[in-house]
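Researcher: Sequence of Aminoglycoside phosphotransferase domain-containing protein follows. Predict its structure.
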Amino acid sequence: MFPIGKRRKGESAKKAFERALYIVLDSLLTIPNELTQIERERIVEYFENMPGNEKCHTNHFDINLEGRPTFFVKYGLDGLVEASTQSFFYALAQKDESAPRIPKVYDAFQDGYGFFVMEKIKLPTLSTCEISEDNAVKSVASAIEWLFAQLPSVPTSIFGRISSEPSCARHEFFKDHEAPVCFAHANAPAKYVNKAFSRCPGKPKRTVSFSDKLAIYHSDIRKDNFLHDIKTRKTCIIDFQHIGVLPEPFQTYAFFNTGSRFTAAVGRHLGYRPSRIANQLTRAANVLQMTGNASLSKHTYIGFKWHLK
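Model: Prediction complete. Tokens:
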């Protein structure tokens, strides 16, 4: 039970409970800031001293700071958003023994690049450990099943990235894996897709519509994005950049319309099947690869917080 605290004047018990619930969920999206300014400066200094070719061919490094465990640091333009997403699921996983392992987020900050600091988990990826293909599929499927089941905990104001930071959805459907604008609701991506259909040659022109039923998606299900402990058989999710909330067809698309046999096998193991709408999205995606600019949509997301009256 959530502590609702002192009820506001004229506020019903239900409204007070909802307010307390929103505060709790909102706090899960808050990025931890556990590093000192000196520790942040050490991280930036380490990054600046990295060879240029190394910076270009990777987006992460390990660093040891005095009195701290080894940190795994990701850098780029998306660090704060991914840190918020990962921190959200990490908090949920701490209360659930069936959850996959998720690295703890220590900090995320901006200094030219975004720096995302998390715990270093010394385990092999599923692509490098000794595990059969069938068991790899089962391990990832178990982690993804838990991930998808967390939808009730996602704040209802979230559409796209699960983050306190404003950012466009990242999904393989979009050009360069990123939506050109921040969509506010299900009608917005539907209109965006239909504009893409309008540019397809031939007649009749196709159209799609999305229901209000949303789902958590993961559009980058690869063995390299999961660590695995052979002894405990525990799987760890280590990449949260392509995780968010969109209409259900985008969840199905991520399984069966990206050209990955492994991802499709994970989807089938979970009981998912290719869908007509997701298959239609493939044609729109081909158009977006050639255009994909923001002119296809005027529906942007405004605001990230709840406004309780």
